[in-house]
């Protein structure tokens, strides 16, 4: 018999003997430890609870701070070394150093004039919203050059090659959104750099790519939708749609004020234009152009717009809907039925 197998049999016999002779529950709990078992009736925290926990915190990241930080980084590190010159926006939840929300990470990113960020691909889905760019800034997606113009939303779904190239003089700034925290949790992370060259050689500029959503068309579409709350109109971007992330343009009329109920989805917002205030439980923040903020799962919010505003809303609703976990109240309750009638999602 293999030595390790023999040693394991002896150890298991000892654990079984110790458990069979436990003199009290406390003694029993101590003797479960070497067996790597836990008593389901004696957990330090319940594993099931009546409603979702409010774990992640509402938070805001002002663009004016992030822009200065990116410019400082541009003096100190090139894209040759950084892969991406980006600043991830980690939720201020104690101990968290990465995710903006449980399934989503947002990041500010910048490339300088005449600079490129090399091509790579990964299984996490990614998308970006362009805050500032000069002429001739592109994201190359699977060999096509997609213009990166102010207000554009660009998709780079699961395993699409993508790199960024700035052929003009002006710096370009944008916000990335990825479902990396979800892929970390589930495990299927794959990442690959382009073997040949820094970015894909691509002659063809493709402004009409299905992966590009220009603001002129999609902002106008949002504004012409029916109101879902007083002063609020929204449009879902697509097709194509990302498997995990739902992307919406949200239009707020000047001075729009409304309450939004809690939902199991987490939402990260980036401000295209306008100003306003969001009050989320005991957190309140003002937002302005370029700012990013998160309203995590199960947090209700009161919105107050200043001027007419457009905000990009990125949520994990596509994922939750597939799993039948998208709710505003306990599943099947009268309150949830009311939420569905008022378009709470
Ligand atoms: Fe990437």
Q: Could you outline the blueprint of secondary structure elements for this entry?
A:
Elements (H helix, E strand, L loop, with lengths): L2 H18 L4 H8 L26 E3 L1 H14 L2 H4 L3 E3 L16 E7 L4 E7 L3 E7 L4 E5 L2 E4 L5 E4 L5 E5 L5 E7 L1 H7 L4 E3 L18 E2 L1 H9 L8 E5 L9 E7 L4 E4 L6 E7 L2 E5 L2 E5 L4 E4 L5 E5 L3 E7 L1 H6 L11 H8 L4
Antiparallel strand pairs: 1-19, 2-3, 3-10, 4-9, 4-11, 5-8, 5-10, 6-7, 6-9, 8-12, 13-14, 14-21, 15-20, 16-19, 16-21, 17-18, 17-20
Tell me the structural class: alpha+beta
Count every beta strand, where a strand is a DSSP E run of 2 or more residues. 21
How would you sum up the major sheet? 6 strands, antiparallel
Fraction of helical residues: 10-25%
Write the H/E string, N to C: HHEHHEEEEEEEEEHEEHEEEEEEEEEHH
Describe what you observe in this structure:
This protein has 345 residues and is an alpha+beta fold. Helices cover 21% and strands 31% of the residues. The protein has 8 helices and 21 strands. β6 and β7 form a beta hairpin. 38% of the residues are buried. Fe (ii) ion (FE2) binds next to β4.
Which keywords apply here?
six-stranded antiparallel sheet, 345 residues, 8 helices, binds fe (ii) ion, 21 strands, alpha+beta
Q: What's the quick description here?
A:
The protein contains eight helices and 21 strands. It is α+β, with helices and mostly antiparallel strands.
């Amino acid at each position: 018999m293999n030595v390790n197998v023999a040693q394991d049999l002896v150890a298991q016999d000892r654990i079984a003997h110790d458990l069979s002779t436990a003199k009290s529950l406390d003694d029993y709990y101590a003797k479960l430890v070497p067996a790597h078992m836990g008593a389901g009736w004696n957990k330090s925290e319940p594993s099931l609870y009546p409603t979702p926990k409010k774990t992640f915190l509402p938070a805001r990241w002002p663009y004016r701070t992030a822009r200065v930080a990116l410019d400082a980084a541009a003096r100190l590190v090139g894209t040759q070394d950084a892969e991406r010159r980006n600043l991830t926006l980690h939720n201020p939840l104690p101990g968290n150093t990465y995710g903006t929300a449980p399934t989503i990470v947002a990041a500010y990113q910048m490339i300088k004039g005449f600079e490129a960020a090399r091509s790579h691909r990964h299984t996490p889905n990614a998308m970006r919203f362009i805050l500032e760019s000069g002429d001739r800034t592109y994201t190359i997606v699977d060999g096509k050059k997609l213009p990166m113009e102010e207000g554009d939303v660009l998709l780079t779904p699961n395993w699409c090659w993508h790199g960024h190239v700035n052929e003009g003089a002006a710096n370009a700034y944008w916000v990335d959104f990825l479902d990396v925290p979800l892929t970390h949790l589930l495990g299927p992370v794959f990442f690959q750099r382009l073997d040949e060259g820094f970015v894909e050689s691509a002659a063809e500029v493709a402004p009409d790519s299905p992966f590009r959503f220009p603001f002129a068309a999609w902002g106008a579409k949002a504004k012409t939708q029916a109101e879902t709350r007083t002063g609020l109109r929204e449009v879902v971007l697509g097709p194509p749609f990302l498997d995990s992330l739902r992307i919406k343009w949200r239009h707020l009329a000047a001075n729009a004020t409304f309450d939004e109920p809690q939902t199991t989805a987490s939402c990260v917002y980036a401000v295209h234009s306008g100003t306003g205030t969001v009050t989320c439980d005991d957190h309140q923040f003002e937002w302005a152009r370029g700012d990013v903020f998160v309203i995590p799962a199960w947090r209700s919010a009161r919105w107050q717009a200043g001027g007419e505003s457009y905000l990009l809303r990125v949520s994990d609703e596509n994922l939750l809907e597939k799993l039948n976990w998208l709710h505003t109240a306990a599943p099947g309750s009268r309150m949830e039925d009311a939420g569905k009638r008022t378009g709470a999602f």
